[in-house]
Each structure stands twice: as C-alpha cells, then as structure tokens.
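REQUEST ID: PR-0412
SUBMITTED BY: lab tech R.K.
PRIORITY: routine
TASK: structure prediction, single protein chain
INPUT:
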Amino acid sequence: MENAVQNNEVFERARLSRDARFDGRFFVGVRTTGIYCRPICPANAPKSENVSFFPSAAAASEAGYRPCLRCRPECAPGTPAWSGTSTTVQRGLRLIADGALDDGNVESLADRLGVTSRHLRRLFVKHVGASPLAVAHTQRLHFAKRLIDQTALSMTDISIASGFGSVRRFNDTFRKTYGRSPRDLRKEGRVQVTASALGVLLPYRRPYDWHGLLDFFSGRATPGVEAVVDGNYVRTVRIGDECGIVRVSDLGDAISLSVHGTGTASLFPVVQRVRSMFDVDAPIDDISAGLNRDKKLRAWLKVRPGVRVPGAWDGFELTVRAILGQQVSVKAATTFAGRIAKRYGEPVGATIDGLQDAPDVLFPEPRKLMRARLEHLGIIRSRSQTIRDLARAVVSGDLNFDAAQKLEDFRDALTAIRGIGSWTAEYVAMRVMKDPDAFPTSDLGLLRAFDLPDGTRLRPSELASRAEAWRPWRAYAALLTWGSDPGAGG
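STATUS: complete
OUTPUT:
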C-alpha cells in the first residue's frame, strides 16, 4: 500500500506538470467525464480528487473509462509500467501482441504459458491492472484508431487489419467506446491522413538512438534481403503466404513504417514485429537508471543516450546469421549470409516506387537449408553442418522461437545443437527472444572494452561478476558497449 501511495504522489506531480517522461507509464481516469488520458493531455487539468491512476490503458478501459479524443491514448509510447515484474506476464503480453487472443481463448493462452487461466488472470490484474482479454481488446481498439487517423484505408480494411472479424463488430465497438462511428472519427480527426495505403507511425519515448540502431543493422544487413538506404531500413518479409517489403524511417518522435506488397490482414503482425525489431517499447528511463551505476557505462550513455537492442524479423534467419558470425568478422558473416540468400532464397515479387536497389530476396526457410551444400559457398564444414542441424531442429519442432516458452528452456534447446554454444545462445536470446538480461560474457568485443588500465583483459567470469550490477538490463549494456567498437557485436 505504501508503494501505491508513493506512486500516486509521483503520478500526480507528473500529471500536473505534464511531464513527458511519464507518457505511457500510466494513464489518468477522470471520474467527472468518464474518460482516460495520457499524463501530457493538453486539456485543463481536473481536480486531484476527481482522478484515478491506472498502470495501463487496458486497466482504465476495464474500469469503464473511454479514451480521450484530444490526447489520443493510442499514440502514447509503449513503455509498460509492469516491465520486469513478472516473466509470465511479459511472455503473455508478447503472445497477445502477436495475436494469441484474436480468438478470445484465454485457456489456450494459459496452457501455452504453463499456468491455469485463473492464475493468468490474477497475474495480469496484479501487474497490468486488467485481464488478458481487456489487454487484447484495447490493443485492437488502439491499433484501429491509429489506422483511422493515419491512413486512407477503408473502414472494412481497418476492421480486418485490427482483428475485429466483422465490420458490424468494429462499428459497434467504436460507437460504444467513443460515442460515434469510425467514419465520424475520421472526419473529426486532427491527424493528417497519408496517401500510403499500408503505413503507420510507431511512437517511442525519447531519447531514442535511431542512428545507433541503423548503424547496427547496416553493418549486418544480409545482401538481397535487407539494406540501409538513405537513412531508411528496408527488408523483404514473409507473413504466412504473403510476401512483401517494409521500409522503416525515423521522424524524431516516432518511426514511420510502410508496407509494400502484402494484404491488409498482414499489417498488424508486421507492425508488431517491427515494434520488436526497433525496440520502440523499451523502458528507457529504467534502463538508463540501472546502467548509470557503472562509471564506464555512464560515460557511454552520455554519448549514446536512448540505447536500444535491435531485434530480428525472423528467429531462424537471425540464428543462422549468429552461427555464421562465430569467430569471424561482422563483414565476413554478412558476406556468407548474402551468399546463402542468393543461392537458396526466393524472389519476393514486390517493389518500392522510387527506391533503387531495393532488397528482392526472401531469406530461405528451414526446409530449404536442411540439406543445403553450404560448403560450396565458402562456409567451413562444421559451421555448415550446424546450420543444417539447426534447420532440422526447427522443422522437427525440437527448437522453436515461441515467446511462450521459458528462456532457460529455449537456451537448452538451442545449445543442444552441436556447434552452438553459450555466446550464440545469448546473442539469439537477446535479439530474437527479446531477453533484456541476455549477456554473452565470452564475447571478445565486450571483454576488450573493459580492459584494465595496464592492458590486462578480464576473464569472462570476471566480466560476468561486474555485469551482475547491470541486471536486468545486461543486453542494453552489451549494445552500449558494442556501440563503442563498430567492429564488435556479431
């Protein structure tokens, strides 16, 4: 109870000062109007006795409040107030973001997470302030509202893209929530509708090290599959049976995503993967506070505030790339990955108007590499065999990249493959499974960065001891460290 009171006092000060650092960390329910707002809402601040605080938009919605049309809660940065509190909740939120509750089956979600549906609801209410179904509903509603404001998509397409299942359900939900139809909301919208048929803005909390992310992706971009062109990240994608190209750029307070070649139904999963790839929901204030305790990291944070951990579009693709990066330079691993894509990949069949030399190949799926003769591409025999074994493990189901599984189980399954050790497992856990505490202690770049003044190099065990103080943000410490050495980082 004492912590709740302290939080409320902090939230009240943040609300009254409209402190942007708290945008997305909590929401304000106004009892006199029945709406909920972001703490930065420009409307006249209501009296303190008339407000309640909620840890998530879903919690405010489940309490009976409707979203404010002025501050637009759907555009708040995605830093979750519950980050780091429950691994089951974190895994559940990732699955919900990937559409696990599109069918409303909470029991199935609970089974995937290894808990009962009753216990899952209890955990969500404790850490998020709302049930899993309320989180899924709010997610769909907010995504649809952004598409109404930011795109020229028809209401039918928006209802499909946001998972409402039918236009009638879509319209009924908006009338119940906002008191008006989606078409009326578009007419009243204050946001400029773009001409891009499949595009959306993804807000983030500043500082955001866009250039650091872009540099990281640029040095590791698989030729033909992905590229950094004129300040944009571009890559080929596959969602189910659909293929296309995505382009991501920075606008200063949000990243802009455009999708080319795929249908409307694929937009939501594309958006969720890009959010993960570009780490837009990182709780950067908490991360910085944790890493600032180390003198060396503090100095690097001053140079690169807003550090993010670059994610991956596809788990299998990134793991192949990590295997290729074992004991070779970043440039060499990138060259090998490009050869694999060129030899075994498929043409994507999509283009981007006005963009020269856009990627045009899909990275090969596991079945394509199970018997691939990678030695003919200059890859040593042992590494080629590891990639083939990896492909077989994915096809057989012995290894998967499902966010529902426990991270220790994932690491065990990955390292059971001959040729994959702890460095690769930590690197993949960091970028694919989005483990904020993954840390490859044997990485030469990390060890080199912490050389003692006399030139003595730390042993991995010594670096691990030092890194204990960085928990649970060791992955961000690794990216910050690699950023001080452009040739490091797999």
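NOTES: Residues 246 and 257 are 7 Å apart (CA to CA).
REVIEWED BY: pending
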